[in-house]
Amino acid sequence: MLFIRTLFFFFLTSVTFSQNGDFYGKIKFNTNEPAIGAFIIINGFEYYKEISTDINGDFYLKEVPYGNYTFQIHSLNSKPKTVSATLNESKKVVNIELEFIENQLDEVLIVSKSRKKIIEEKGFAVNVISTKKAAIQSIQVNELLDQSAGVRVRQSGGLGSTANYNLNGMSGNSVKIFIDGVPIRNFGPSFSLNSIPASLIKRIEVYKGVVPPYLSDDAMGGAINIVLNNITKNELRASISAGSFGTYRADIIGGYRNNKNGFTARGSAFLNYADNDYKVWGNQVAVTLAPGTPDVYIRAKRFHDRYRSQGGKAEIGYTNVEWADQFLFGAVLSNMDKQIQTAATMEIVYGNRFTEQNTNMYSLDYKKTDILKNLDVSAFASFSKLNRKTIDTIATQYSWLGYPTNYYNTPDVWTSGAEAGNPTLQKDIDKTVNTRTNLTYRIKENNTLQFNHLLNTFSRDSDDPMLPAIENALKEERKYKKNILSLSYENLAFNKKLRTTAFAKSYHMNRSSKLRTRSSNSSNATIEIEENIVKSDDLGFGGAISYKVSSKLTVFGSAEKAIRLPEAGEVFGNVSTNINPSINLKPEHSNNYNLGFSVDKIKFKKHNFGVNANVFIRDTEDLIMQFPIGNDEEFFENSNVGKIYTEGFDFELNYNYNNKLFFSGNTSFFNARDYNVTYDLNGNPITPSYERLANTPYFTMNYNVKYNAKNFIQQESLFSTYSNLLYVNEFFRHGSTLGGSGKTVIPTQISFDAGFAYTFPKNKITFSFDIKNILNNQIFDNYALQKPGRGFYSKLTFTIL
What we know:
- It contains five helices and 49 strands.
- The chain is mainly β and 801 residues long.
- The protein folds into two domains: 2-98, Immunoglobulin-like (Sandwich), CATH 2.60.40.10; 113-799, Maltoporin, Chain A (Beta Barrel).
- The strands form eleven sheets. The chain has a 22-stranded antiparallel β-barrel. Strands 9-14-15-12-13 form a five-stranded mixed beta sheet, covered by helices on one side.
- The radius of gyration is 29 Å and the shape is globular.
């Protein structure tokens, strides 16, 4: 009997081990980030295998005999971990969570090379900006972006001013901004890249040209994705800073997670204040001391440009639990008030005009890997409400002297009754609903199918008690809706060296408006409601490819037929920023091409090098640009400018010596030309002018040097110093056609910044000091609107928990 049982046991064992199955799963940290490149050793009965996780933290192991196994996981950012698993079915899921430990290796200020390398392998032209080291400096997010290859951030003044982003020749809303993959327009202007402190941000991903489908939106010229520090452990950090021109900033970020049940709460808050009372000068800063006398050019101090904003973001829910990787309710509350110093240019000065606004946004965020077998899902939904008020009721004329113009002892007044037209106390209520859904299905180990959907709706209600009652009774309506659907397929081949992505996008827009119109400017003018309805349906497609030639060299390319739908703010305008409505705007269309390479980890003794280069072409029709209008260029208006052809390149070199001395240099050049055909009086075509695109800087260079010294003065301390040089070649403010009018040149600009930071032992406190625009040069951006001169700033960052 014993013999029979023994024989039966060995027979059963042999049958069991003669069967094979597959192991697969995901390895991630308790921060919910994938453990990229984690090394796995799998041991079993007469079985041994070594594999690594991919870019998503996934692994897949085929044809494994049934039995008991141990998994030993090794990662640079965690302690080794061992788990056991039994394979007794055709496919076995093994999901493992590692405890994240901050990597102690020094990082490059601008680019996290390892992360950048991973993203580049998907074939998109991209920069990745790490904010870990920069967060301790008195530096704005826009300044970090301005130091990145192919990026030019254009602000209309100091802290809180309007910013415009140019990526390889494309600008305005052609470049989409995201926060954790959510379009930033939902957060309101008081929660913007100009107000969010760098310490609240983990990294910034800058996609130039073709954009990954998962971002969903109609980004035609590129995208900037801000990845926030989503803390999933007990931590509390804060910082305060102060500097020139009455600038003060403070922020705090913290989080809590119960490791037993996954309950998570995290939040952040910030406060910004600036007088922005820096000096301006040049051919736009002039005063007339008496009627009929020549203008006198002066150095003047901005006197009506105070900016104040505050905001907070809070999330509560569960992370890394069995039924969800992330399930969080969120709220973003922010408000802002800002004095308005100038019109579209600095020729007109305001002394009483200002705006107030606040935004409330509520959201639900859900993510789950393997919600069904091989299927991942993420969904985000939000509702936001923006209240904005524009105050302009005093007609007094101001000059750059800082007080009302005063001829014959009587202050001059604007005949319109206010500084920017008719008196106004206009209140706008903008309501936005945004939903984003991503479904990812892994067909096989090396094939992935992804579906994305974005829905965005917008409505605005306006009321102005300063209007005549009969006119204000004619209620205006503004509604906007867009749907974007995308389907993408990704394939890995040749041992994952070749990565190919193909995608298609469907764009749908429906907008309507009922706006008041006047038959004339006389008192007997007839006021009517003009209704406008516009629908648009378009199809775009594209692809990206990359090939990992070696562990050091990756080549990539991408192409796309892209469509960009006009934004609600472009169509309906904005009184507070002097933007007029443009209800007849058409969508932009562009054929985008990128080709480049990335060389990394070139080592020679203690020297490390990296090179990235990208060439691009943009063939664009109906490009939307914003221009000042009127004789005094007081207001902006968006319009389609026809056919623009752009070609150019950007190049970046990174070097470090012994992880102590770091250098980063980049150059960007593009040639955007007007290819519109005009016609003479007889209808004969006239050769295009091929003039350069107006008000667009086309040649920039940036150089950054940083040095780190450990154990400086004190043991376990860190001292770092940096300097940054920005060069912007001169460009035309208006047209450059020979014999044309308004050929004002924005001169060549050079800005030099420097600073240092000292981190005390135990990494609890860091003090930094920065000097910006050391040479005190004139720095211009949009239509010669001057930015601050030399300024001194200090910052104290400390860890509470």
